[in-house]
Amino acid sequence: MFCSRSSMMKKLLTLVLITRPNQVLLGMKKRGFGQGRWNGFGGKVEKGETILEAAKRELFEESSLKSDDLKEIGLIDFEFVGDPQILEVHVFTTSKFEGEPTESSEMRPQWFNVKDIPFDTMWPDDHLWFPLFLSGTKFKGYFLFEGHDKILKQTLDKVDSLPDE
Ligand SMILES: CNc1ncnc2c1ncn2[C@@H]1O[C@H](COP(=O)(O)OP(=O)(O)OP(=O)(O)O)[C@@H](O)[C@H]1O
């Protein structure tokens, strides 16, 4: 199979943010990448599935929620100094879902008021783009990290549409 240099260097990931009036559902990551931080639900896109399918699957695996209404709202590239692989994170949101948030081996879900989002215990990029997500504005971003706590470079732009739509 032919893989272009850019696709070889990219890892596709999903991130799903579930909302209800004035609240957002976050999960405390219990293990693996981003352990100890609140985040949306998501993970790696597996072979043979679309990005949207991966988003739905990870949402269900990590929170027990199902949704057929995920809308892509953001696209973020993350780069880490010393690592050639870019993480391409597709951010989805919906307020239409079924089920009760349930703790999984990976995530402990909790509703947060939008005025009370625990940015101090989240990835440092989140407080920069959450306002766009919360206001329903589509966005594209790029963040260069040194380690997991420091952003060295960033871009963040509002967009009218995202490539996969
Ligand atoms: C650097 N700044 C960041 N800011 C906000 N969110 C970030 C992030 N970097 C990664 N993310 C998200 O973190 C999850 C990791 O998922 P991750 O545990 O690696 O995937 P998956 O569940 O497939 O893993 P296992 O195969 O079980 O290890 C995934 O939603 C991804 O979008």
Explained architecture:
This protein is an alpha+beta fold and 165 residues long. The protein has one domain (5-158): Nucleoside Triphosphate Pyrophosphohydrolase, CATH 3.90.79.10. Helix content is 16%, strand content 40%. The chain has three helices and eight strands, in the order αβββαβββαββ. The chain has helices at 5-8, 51-63, 126-134, and strands at 10-20, 23-29, 38-39, 71-80, 83-94, 107-113, 139-146, 150-158. Strands 1, 2, 3, 4, 5, 6, 7 and 8 form an eight-stranded mixed beta sheet that branches. It is globular. It starts with a helix and ends in a 7-residue tail after the last strand. The model has no long low-confidence stretch (mean pLDDT 95). The structure holds N6-Methyladenosine 5'-triphosphate (N6E).
